[in-house]
Fold this protein.
Amino acid sequence: MRSPVAVVVKGYPRLSETFIAQELLALERRGIDLVIVSLRHPTDRLDHPIHAEIRSPVHYLPEYLHEAPGRVLRAWKTARRLPGYPRARSMWLADLARDRTRNRVRRFGQALVLAAELGPVESIHAHFLHTPASVARYASVMLGIGWSFSAHAKDVWTTPEWEKREKLADARFGVTCTRTNLEHLTGLAPSPDVVELVYHGLDLRRFPSRVAERVARDGSDPADPVRILSVGRLVDKKGYDDLLDALAMLPPGLAWTLEVVGGGPLDTKLREQAETLGIADRVHWRGSLSHDRVVEHFADADLFALASRISADGDRDGLPNVLMEAQLLGVACVATRVSAIPELIEHGVNGLLVPPRASVALAAALERAIIDPALRARLAVTGLRTVMARFSFEEGIERLAEKLEAISEPASTPGLADVHDAPRLAS
């Protein structure tokens, strides 16, 4: 019987990362045993129904080392006896010399706990190329097993180049969810076959089988305005201030409302901006909602808008799942031409695209879509066909499962015997 694969995530469960939960459940259903290892405890007050379906054990590493000094010390005493410990320590010290931060120290401490407390596993897979991949990399070296990663968005564009090069050289394989990411990472990898494109896709079983019928609103009736929806965290890279600016530029007599689903640190600032712009009565802030509630908002929406942009630190979206969800549920999209969004949306064919941070252009695209219900209907039909034809969830999961099974090593891998009797990871 094969040992499980350890999957390292930054936090679990997370409402904003249901694509990871979707993947975990699908791998379980393909017979791959998993151990979920989380660097942080959950902070969301809600979770997705899919989390209740996942049966893999979830274990939490100490989020801050000073909060569990005894556990970290015991882990170090165990891990230092592992054959790979000297190499892992040297690797970490070299990283620390270039990144003198508390986070770098915490990554190694968490890796010590992971290596010391983890029972026999086939390999370690990390979601995100930054912190989770560091913890997975250090621990795998200590244990003498392979590791791999899934790279997504912020982790690709905010991780230093030297670090990405070294991780790409060490990992058995990597997958990433956009062609934009793939081209960037392939350029840093020792060979082009290290990283492979695997789109997240959507699990169609979790969405209504029929697209909701929509009234042909055109913004001319104040009693029946065009309903615009946007779903995303209230953070800089989502460009909600640009979206509000654009909406404030629309003709005063045009009837519209905006529903914003999502929470985040910019909540208060954005509400104040809507007040200043004089559109607060048209903007409704719904906060974080369960997936079922989000689907209900999609069913009521006439138009979906997302003003993604690249933040000053390089953070950006990959290919937002909410755009695929909008298209799957028959909602026309207005978005920005940034990162991998053009891999999904072709301007004028299955959506409207404008440059990022261009509120005037965004306002023009929104007005065009608001006043023309026939255009929205045409874009929505083509968008649905695009998602169904090009973004297969099943195909991506099959490929990831094949790659995980290919790098798996026997449970008797040297180094693991030293930790079989160590305390199990604390849940």
Remarks:
- Residues 5-201+392-419 form a domain with the Rossmann fold fold (CATH 3.40.50.2000).
- The chain has 17 helices and 13 strands.
- Confidence is low (pLDDT under 50) at residues 409-424.
- The chain has two domains: 5-201+392-419, 207-389.
